[in-house]
Amino acid sequence: MEALIAVVLMSLTAHIPSHRKPRRSASKIALRAGVAGGVLSTLAVAGASAPASAAEPVTETIEMPTITADLSTQVAESAYATQEAANSWALQAEQDQAIAKAAKQAKADQADAQQKAEAKKKAEAEAQRKAEEARASRSAQRTTLATVSAAANVSAPASGSVASVIAFLKAQLGDAYVMGGTGPNSWDCSGLTQAAFRQAGVSLPRVSQDQSTAGTPVSLSNLQVGDLLYWGAAGSAYHVGVYIGNGQYLDAANPSKGVVIQDLSGYPATGAVRLL
Questions:
Q1: Structure pTM?
Q2: pLDDT digits 0-9 by tens, 119-146
Q3: Which end of the chain has fewer CB atoms < 10 Å from its terminal CB, N or C?
Q4: What element of type H or E holds 125?
Q5: Helix 161-171, helix 189-198: angle, nearest 10
Q6: Domain ranges in the chain?
């Protein structure tokens, strides 16, 4: 009886090359289980007298797939790649946002700079316009004063005029020099010459610049007593005095000297005008 059971079991497993049984479909397993069950039932009836302990249950092990190390590594690498891609996208988004913000700020700065440049240009144009108006006004005033002076020079008496001018000047010798002084005991250079020529009926402008263009220009080699000397360019002279002959002139020199007589050789004049 045991030999017969062994033969049946061997016939059922003869097609399996190894001790590990391959996976089988559910239908084949059911069919073979039915055959084996029928055979075993027959054997059980035929050998009912055999001991119960001689029969052994037939079992079948179905192996489940396992996760290999390679598959685990691939899963980890795929997760890492996905995270890297997410990080890259987030970084790109931040960079795009920063670029957009910088472009917006640059545009605002450019507009502000352009507005300031236009305001500066307008201010410069306005300042230039005012300066031109001021120059035109000063030029008109000088022309008027020169005309008045010329008319006064023409109407001034011819006799005794120079003598009265020189006499007045010499009477002020030793007086102090004071900027803006017009007498009677302190003078600046143009204040003294204005007062002196007033004695001869000549009305001179108040400042040196205008006095230097008030009469008829004469060369320094053809000076006469009573000619007005000036230092600096005509129209922008910074000092005046009166020629008194013998290479000398009288002026309100400076705070240390006061009203004095000096030699032209020591301080040559730039030009001269004749008022009498």
A1: 0.44
A2: 888 888 888 888 777 666 655 555 444 4
A3: N
A4: helix 69-155
A5: 140
A6: 2-54, 66-155, 157-274
